[in-house]
Design brief:
The protein is an alpha/beta fold. It has ten helices and 21 strands.
């Protein structure tokens, strides 16, 4: 998991440098240059600052209000069925009967009742993508809400894992598996134990854009073929033991080959590598098709991170990061996301690390219509256990409150045991407190029903 830790550290460092630059600080030592600060103060005192418009209340509509002010200060109006932003038309709109400000996004509905959401294209608000009414509440099936991550090579026996999960109040366990025969055999034993115990094993298929030599696959077909074979083998081995859900790839949008810069939030399709995009798409398609070739009724998930709706939308619509269309669209059964403390609040996540936030689960619910899972969440490895315990209580409270409205099926803490106190909630079977107690106290007091 070194990539994750490096990435989180990178985000923290970059976030700090952005804040420093914005405040006029030195990127080298963090000290403010006194002369520059004095000059800036004098300049700011002399100039007249225009008032920043107040953002409209969540749920504001046109008609209803005279206008809508979004979180960037842009003013939206509706005239004769056409939508305007700061007095200019926004894409091609007509017969619009409703404009809605909700969850940090602008949504519209036509006279036929079809909803669309406005998304940024190369930092210009002008593209409308089809969706459902984001205000519609959706509740995922109860029973799998509380979960935790683990690894196939733990020294815990399957029976011990069952006991540990039940003690934590968890019903779902996420574990990764490659095509390696030893890994598959180990995960099969866990699946057998979980099936008997009535627990859910959520299997991450650890396949991606790199071949066995560490090189990016040569094309989409090669990536598809390799991924299909591995996923088929895993599903064939696990299907007899009650495994019905698979996550097809882990943070594939966050590989060196797929994201243009790790500091990008991912809200724009152009944040991703256009050249290697077909390989990633092929790997994802191959895994889903490989699973379905064995278990046609199995549920396949595609995983994203940070604010990667730019990637999710492009895959869903069959587009490339450069805006070209006509490629095979992906249709997954479950939308999964990773949300660490450094990424921001998933219900108000910033589109560029600093900028205006939006409600990501609401967006996914309206856009893709699939159950939503947060398959990894935690704070950073450098935090104290007191901080982590408070974070666990706060986050679980936020997730739990939204489970009946945002279609959140499961939230899986990362991780059960990291061998130390950086991420794990126990070491060698011994709870790490107060984090463990905070977790179990919440699950025991808040039933998954």
């Amino acid at each position: 998991m070194m990539k994750r830790r490096q990435f989180l550290g990178c985000l923290t460092a970059l976030g700090g440098s952005h804040i420093l630059s914005a405040c006029g600080g030195s990127s080298q030592d963090g000290n403010t240059n006194t002369a520059s600060a004095t000059a800036a103060k004098a300049t700011s005192t002399a100039k007249v600052t225009a008032p920043v418009p107040s953002t409209s209340a969540n749920g504001t509509t046109l008609p209803g209000a005279g206008s809508i002010t979004d979180s960037t200060g842009a003013v939206w109006t509706l005239t004769n069925g056409v939508v305007y932003r700061n007095g200019s038309t926004v894409g091609d709109t007509y017969n619009v009967s409703l404009v809605l400000w909700y969850g940090g996004k602008i949504w519209v509905s036509g006279t036929n009742g079809q909803f669309y959401v406005n998304v940024d294209v190369r930092n210009v608000a002008g593209q409308w993508l089809p969706c459902t009414d984001p205000r519609n509440a959706a509740a995922a099936t109860a029973g799998n809400f509380y979960g935790v991550n683990g690894h196939w090579d733990y020294t815990y026996t399957p029976a011990q894992l069952v006991s540990i999960l039940k003690g934590m109040g968890c019903t779902t366990y996420r574990v990764g598996c490659t095509g390696d025969a030893n890994q598959i055999s180990t995960v099969v034993k866990i699946a057998q134990a979980f099936q008997s115990a009535g627990l859910t094993l959520f299997v991450l298929i650890e396949q991606g854009v790199y071949d066995s030599s560490g090189n990016v696959y040569g094309n989409e077909t090669a990536a598809y073929s390799a991924s299909f074979s591995i996923a088929q083998s895993i599903a064939r081995a696990l299907s007899p033991y009650g495994v019905t859900m698979y996550e097809c790839g882990n943070e594939l949008t966050r590989q060196n080959a797929t994201v243009m810069n790790f500091s990008y939030a991912g809200a724009l399709a152009m944040d991703f590598n256009n050249t290697n995009w077909p390989v990633m798409r092929g790997a994802m398609r191959g895994m889903m098709d490989g699973v379905k070739s064995v278990q046609s009724s199995a549920k396949c998930a595609i995983n994203f991170s940070v604010a990667d709706i730019g990637a999710a939308d492009a895959l869903w619509e069959g587009m490339q990061p450069d805006g070209t269309s006509g490629h095979q669209p992906l249709r997954w059964d479950i939308t999964t996301w990773h949300n660490y403390d450094a990424y921001g609040d998933i219900f108000d996540i910033g589109t560029d690390g600093n900028g205006p936030g939006f409600d990501l689960p609401t967006y996914c619910k309206a856009r893709y219509g699939a159950p939503f899972m947060i398959t990894e969440w935690n704070t950073g490895p450098d935090q104290t256990e007191a901080f982590r315990a408070n974070y666990v209580t706060t986050q679980l409270g936020e997730f739990y409150q939204a489970r009946k409205t945002h279609n959140i099926q499961s939230v899986m803490y990362y991780v059960l045991d990291s061998g130390n106190d950086t991420y794990g909630i126990m070491i060698n079977g011994s709870p790490i407190n107060p984090t463990y107690s905070a977790f179990t106290s919440f699950t025991s007091s808040n039933p998954d029903n």
